[in-house]
């Protein structure tokens, strides 16, 4: 029996088992595992137990690990390969407010027919229960056909992803030896576009800073003091305005150290994506890419670092007008990082920059709000080409290597703590309404998602 | 009988009548004429009636004029001079909250002994009932000694000064012919310093603007859009930062048109005031004057125009951190004007300036918050020198010609609507706690204030 014949039988088995797989997912979705809400603590645990029981039933050695927060579920298959693979997903879900905007109870999921095809409707359908079940169903079909699970799988399911993952880093550190693999497979992202599968191979990092500038010990009357006393809002405006030059480049000394231009291959790949910036911006009422001169729109969001002001406040900004010369002004600023930029060097350069604008009569304080480097996966690992090929075969369209403008902290944690890259493959769509009322996951995503994992496993095992 | 002998008798009469005058003021202060509080509407009217009755008793022809808000009290003495003089004050007072910070009921006034001398304690003692009673007591003593009131006085008392004077401009326009005089005498300001009397001869004007910059039609995720989409806070920061250059000068084209350097005389006078900027700033926790290079601190606040950001808001500025790329940013900006600067030209230049920073993908809206030119009194009118001399004689220290960094709208209205300059003479002190709990007015201010007006009247009548 060739590998290929085995794969065909696994795919057949997935098709035969489609309705039973959907029933299992609906059962899982009925557990209201909202991790941010203490009232649902027992439900979160119930979802962990449901997963453990499923995995035990499949032949995994599965355990629940308690943490100070919600439990971790860890499962393993038998040894037998040279490349352990870690699969990650999260079994907790977002809150459901506002409940009145749901067309049906969020934890009474169903399969709905829509003009765009059948969808699984319910909280967690796409984020992330439906996605993590795609690889579990692939394991199940593999076992059915071959009699045993793929060897050397490590499964890690978290119950705190929607509440900031407070227990994750300590847990990874504590169980590093048991969790370390050659690669992490994360199923919590979207396709590039409807029907076009993708592997996210790079994620921007993030540095968050809050800056508070204080002048006088109280708000002053701008008549009595205007022109004589330092105005913290003006000091702040000057410091922030000078963060970017006229071409959109960040001016901090050394900021671009470690930033790398796109490889020719990736540049060609991204070019072939035919990204329509006008359409992307048009959906939010904008039209013109406004980033660095000489960069393509996809480079701007995926491969170029940037500085953004996320919030600003100072003085009187309510209705009407008060001629105060304010005692204080504050801003929240974040930097998205790429390549090998060092978060702490960026932070230090930002602080030096702001300090250089602060006159004698003002003080400045900084508050740190996180820092993580960019994640750039080593796509020369043959697993990437193999997974790309597998996805391309399943979906009939070439799988794309894409970037992500945001950060996915788990990928950084896997890299930093366990020293492994992540392969981010997900089957979400832009209209899945994750974190919103009426969340859904396309049945096609679920079915072809499981088939995709079967193909990827076949290539890697 | 010489003028001087008459004056001596008027001053004697004021000294003899001191206790009775204080009793009258306490009676006036017992009326809780809070103009902003509808619950005190009848009290405001009672204060107007009290004044009218006082003035009628003194021989004035006094009337209450109803307005859409609180009434105006207008009184006149007999004709008989070539220079009608208008005296202005306001009989309404500030609210008293927070009541628990008062050491005694705010409308149960009393004379208190303090280490710095006797004070009249109660709401309105300094702002403005105690001050307006200084000239009424001077009229009373004059009448007692001379048998008739000083001729050609027009008295105007407002009941809405603490609530924005909504009825004032229409009233001045409607009664312009009856109210027009050669000069307005306003008793609602402070001395230059304790024991050093002053005439305020110039006030800065004001232009208020609110600017709102909008980008996308919603807050965006700074990961997905950062580097590609316009950030309204950055646009605003760049526009505001560019309002002033490195030397503290406002950069708007034509901004300084109409601004005049100090006359040599005034420069010398202000120099002689020995203004201690370090002390002035030190009281609010600052130390270094930060205005235009090459200007003295008093010039900065009294004779130079400036631009101040009074408030700014945009994005997420609460606790923690949200990586939003905000849909909107807004700021309130005000310009203090001097000399002949034209408020509407300054407003237009500001709007053009901001627009030049707004990219295609953003919109900008402006909201006007008032505009008034600076008031610069014509001190070549001999009345100024005469009043200065009178004040100097009463207080034993040379009266100062000073400026004010803020605006006193009534002076602008008298100029614009009635075509007359104002002579701003008041006897308040920095520690009077106007608008705050435990407001007070020094008995010395009250007594020597009335004597000052007697001397000024003697010089001008």
From TrEMBL, chains A, B:
Keyword list (alphabetical) reads:
Hydrolase, Metal-binding, Protease
The residues that cross the membrane are none
Give start and end of each Peptidase M20 dimerisation domain: 203-360
Q: Which InterPro entries match?
A: Cyt/Met_Dipeptidase (IPR051458), Peptidase_M20 (IPR002933), Peptidase_M20_dimer (IPR011650)
Q: What is this protein called?
A: M20/M25/M40 family metallo-hydrolase
């Amino acid at each position: 029996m060739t590998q290929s014949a085995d794969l065909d039988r696994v795919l057949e088995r997935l098709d035969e088992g489609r309705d039973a797989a959907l029933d299992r997912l609906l059962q899982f979705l009925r557990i209201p595992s909202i991790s941010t809400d203490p009232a649902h603590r027992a439900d979160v645990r119930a979802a962990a137990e449901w997963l453990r029981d499923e995995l035990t039933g499949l032949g995994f050695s599965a355990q629940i690990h308690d943490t100070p927060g919600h439990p971790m579920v860890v499962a393993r298959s038998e040894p037998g390969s040279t490349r352990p693979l870690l699969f990650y997903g999260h079994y907790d879900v977002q809150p459901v407010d506002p409940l009145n905007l749901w067309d049906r109870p969020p934890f009474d999921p169903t399969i709905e027919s829509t003009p765009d095809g059948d969808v699984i409707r319910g909280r967690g359908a796409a984020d992330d229960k439906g996605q993590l079940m795609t690889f579990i169903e692939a394991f199940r079909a593999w076992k059915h056909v071959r009699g045993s699970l793929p060897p050397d799988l490590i499964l890690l399911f978290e119950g705190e992803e929607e509440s900031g993952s407070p227990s994750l880093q300590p847990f990874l550190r504590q169980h590093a030896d048991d969790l370390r693999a050659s690669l992490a497979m994360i199923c919590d992202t979207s396709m590039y576009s409807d029907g076009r599968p993708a592997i996210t191979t790079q994620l921007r990092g993030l540095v968050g800073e809050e800056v508070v500038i204080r002048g006088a010990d109280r708000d002053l009357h701008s008549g009595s003091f205007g022109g004589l006393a330092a105005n913290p809002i003006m000091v702040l405006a000057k410091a922030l305005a000078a963060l970017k030059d006229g071409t959109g480049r960040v001016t901090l000394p050394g900021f671009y150290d470690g930033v790398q231009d796109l490889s020719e291959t990736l540049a060609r790949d991204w070019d072939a994506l035919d990204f329509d910036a006008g359409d992307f911006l048009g959906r939010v009422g904008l039209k013109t890419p406004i980033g660095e001169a000489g960069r393509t729109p996809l480079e701007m969001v995926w491969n170029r670092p940037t500085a953004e002001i996320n919030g600003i406040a100072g003085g009187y900004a309510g209705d009407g007008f008060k001629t105060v010369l304010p005692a204080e002004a504050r801003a929240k600023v974040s930097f998205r990082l790429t390549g090998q930029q060092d978060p702490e060097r960026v932070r230090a350069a930002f602080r030096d920059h702001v300090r250089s604008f602060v006159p004698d009569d003002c003080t400045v304080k900084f508050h740190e709000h996180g820092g993580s480097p960019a994640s750039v996966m080593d796509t020369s690992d043959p697993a990437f080409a193999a997974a790309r090929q597998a996805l391309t075969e399943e979906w009939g369209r070439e799988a794309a290597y894409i970037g992500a403008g945001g950060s996915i902290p788990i990928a950084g944690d896997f890299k930093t703590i366990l020293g492994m890259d992540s392969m981010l493959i997900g089957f979400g769509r832009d209209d899945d309404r994750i974190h919103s009322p009426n969340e859904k996951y396309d049945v096609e995503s679920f079915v072809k998602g499981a088939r995709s994992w079967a193909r990827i496993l076949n290539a890697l095992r």
